[in-house]
Amino acid sequence: LTVLNAGRRYLKAEELSGKVFVTSGLGGMSGAQAKAAVIAGCVGIIAEVDEAALLKRHKQGWLMEISNNLDHCIARLREARKNKIALSLGYHGNVVDLWERLVHELDTTGELLVDLGSDQTSCHNPFNGGYYPVQLGFEEGKQLLSSNPGKFRALVQESLKRHVAAINKLADKGMFFWDYGNAFLLEAQRAGADVAKKGANKTEFRYPSYVQHIMG
């Protein structure tokens, strides 16, 4: 319902075939995102750093395909988008790399390859394993979290700034991003990322919350 209503509200579309939804997280509640994309008829690319979570969703049948190769992901995205095929593709990697690759595609080809975007990393708990920084692999991140939590925290905040910078570039060209109630925008703001709503008070963000804007 969230994905369908985001399409209705932001894309003025009653059906989402040929549209692309990019997000992250295939763990607990976030695992439903892959299934939602296919039910809605769109192309869903979902990033997940934890291979165990990725394989679990694939085994369940909630995730149609998995890949750790961004070139392959972009090729599959283009193919499914062109042919209006419903697809859920799990990218085994950091979502920041995925967002930055989509910016690269926009910069080099002029193509905006994503229509809808969100995030379901566990940003209510960003410094204790809920969000892994793009600068490190998953296992490296776990080791640093254990050995030097202060350094881990600093890398998470740097990563959040990169995360938002990529989203902002795509949103400026017409991609619609929303907050999934996971404290992503709040933690990004605390990290110094550009998420403030222009001309509004400091408690308002440039991207809407799914609670009020989509489900409400």
UniProtKB/TrEMBL annotation:
InterPro entries in UniProt: Urocanase-like, Urocanase_central_sf, Urocanase_Rossmann-like, Urocanase_sf
Urocanase Rossmann-like domain boundaries: 2-214
Coiled-coil blocks: none
One family name in Pfam for this protein: Urocanase
Gene Ontology molecular-function annotations: urocanate hydratase activity
Biological process, per Gene Ontology: L-histidine catabolic process
Source superkingdom: Eukaryota
UniProt xrefs under PANTHER family: UROCANATE HYDRATASE
Protein name listed in UniProt: HUTU hydratase
Organism whose genome encodes this protein: Regulus satrapa
Encoding gene per record: Uroc1
